[in-house]
Amino acid sequence: MYTSIMEDGVIYKTSFDEDGKITGTKMFTDSKKMVSSDGILWDSSRQKLYVADILNNAVHSVGTDASVETLHQNADTSGADGSLDQPVVLLLRDDQLIVVNMDIAWITPKGAALNTEVEAPFNLSVIDL
Q1: pLDDT tens-digit readout, 54-99
Q2: How far apart are the C-alpha atoms of 93 and 124, rounded to whole Å?
Q3: In 6-56, which ranges are E strands?
Q4: Nearest to 100 by CA among 26, 24, 38
Q5: Does the structure show a pLDDT above 70 at 106?
Q6: Mean pLDDT across the stretch 107-129?
Q7: Residues 22, 27, 33, 34, Cα dihedral to 10°
């Protein structure tokens, strides 16, 4: 089981025995590439986690070896052109990641996120895998 601490951009891995009892939890990845780790999604066919980095307008993939690759990142935009605008939730559809953006610049402390203002609600982005 993978869990994240959103504000720290880290992911933990919890292991279980055959009876479903927890055998341990350890830091899985703590990459400087991830500022935050809001939404995470497991892709069993590719054996990767996908991570929505709300504070850095980015989406990353994490391999089973804990390596982090940035799939897409953009500066502060409105999202009108399909770019990321504070991504929070990921959905896998065939070879595409559907990204739900939650443009909430008003709630993040000044300087904590790339986004600086709230624009019209352009909520979805698509990343081809």
Answers
A1: 999 999 999 999 999 999 999 988 899 999 999 999 999 999 999 9
A2: 13
A3: 10-16, 22-29, 39-43, 48-53
A4: 38
A5: no
A6: 80
A7: 50
Q: What type of residue is 116?
A: T
The residues near 84 (Cβ < 8 Å, ≥ 6 apart) are 57, 58, 59, 72, 73, 74, 77, 99, 101, 125
Taking alpha carbons only, the member of 12, 39, 56, 37 closest to residue 98 is 39
Tokens standing for residue 15: 């292991």
Over the stretch 25-41, which tens digit does the pLDDT of each residue have?
Answer: 999 999 999 999 999 99
Nearest to 58 by CA among 44, 42, 39: 39
Chain Cα centroid distance, residue 43: 13
Distance CA 34, CA 53 (A): 6
Name residues whose C-beta falls within 8 Å of residue 103's C-beta, 6 or more positions apart in sequence: 79, 85, 86, 115, 118, 119, 121, 122
